[in-house]
Input
Amino acid sequence: MEHIPRHLAIIMDGNGRWAQQRHLPRLVGHQKGVEAVRQVVEECCSLGICHLTLYAFSSENWGRPADEVAALMGLLATYLKSELKTLLSNKVRLRVIGESEKLPKNIRKTLDEAVERTSQNDSMTLTLALSYGSRAELLNVCKSLAARVGCGELRSEEIDEELFSAALDTGGVPDPDFLIRTSGEMRISNFLLWQLAYTELYFTDVFWPDFSREELHKALLEFGRRQRRFGLTAEQLLKQDRSGDGGNH
Output
């Protein structure tokens, strides 16, 4: 584990199929998924990962059956209340990205309280993507920058990648180094489209409820074997290493 990603992002997929394979209600799969979240968050803390972003509820998930959506919201509230002490003791800072105004009022209140109480923590930042869709995020950034240009606050030629990145929901957080998606699906499902430009991708057939500490270690070992070139050649990276500039792994 010589090379640990500074920022790990995870698409937690497969709760429903995990339950269906066992002839159980989908809610049981989501409950088991919450247990996997607890394990992964604790392990990422102990490994020294600075940023962990979890795709918890997409903007498209609102289209699921109403009873399942309600159950998911209930599980979210339960997780936040039960894990707050753990987040505080491990000095984990909680952040939320997405259209949180669409969440039920009681969920928003619980989220706001957890975000506020953990705001001074500095060990790891845990970001929950809730009611999140990357296309909507990008459109919102374009609209906000266009409005600034329209009122004369900003000139169009001043808009660059750095300014655009800062205006995203993830502004101030480094782009993910590594993305894990569980359940065997090989797509990014409208998640962090801008931020994943040079992220290493890892897909596993393991359903999220079965994604254990051992599975996390397996994924991170694979990350450590990869060479991140950012458009450069392997020879150029080798020269950087020799000159003392450091390579990207």
